[in-house]
Design brief:
This protein is an all-alpha fold. The protein has a domain of about 50 residues. Helices cover about 55% and strands about 0% of the residues. The chain is built from 2 helices and no strands. Helix 1 crosses helix 2.
Length: about 80
C-alpha cells in the first residue's frame, strides 16, 4: 500500500505521528466510553444501550476498553 508523503516528512516520521494521533484519540474515546459505561450502569437493564464490543458481565473498564478498541480503528481506515 502506498503512503502519501508530505514534502520534507519521512515515512517513519509520518507513521510515528499517526501512532501518537491514534493513542490520543484512543485515550479520549476510552475516557468518554468509561463515563458512558458508568452512567449506563445506573440505568435499568432495559434502558441500557447495546454498543459494539459491550458484553455482559465485564467490568466498567473492560467494557469501555472493548468499545473504544472496536470503534477507534475505523477513524484511521483509508
Amino acid at each position: 500500500m502506498a503512503e502519501v508523503l508530505r514534502p520534507g516528512v519521512s515515512g517513519l516520521r509520518l507513521r510515528e505521528e499517526m501512532r501518537w494521533e491514534y493513542r490520543i484519540v484512543f485515550s479520549v474515546a476510552f475516557v468518554w466510553f468509561l463515563v458512558v459505561t458508568a452512567v449506563t450502569r445506573l440505568l435499568p437493564r432495559s434502558w441500557r444501550p447495546h454498543l459494539p464490543g459491550m458484553e455482559p458481565r465485564r467490568s466498567i473498564f473492560g467494557e469501555a476498553w472493548a468499545v473504544a478498541a472496536t470503534l477507534v480503528p475505523f477513524a484511521f481506515m483509508r
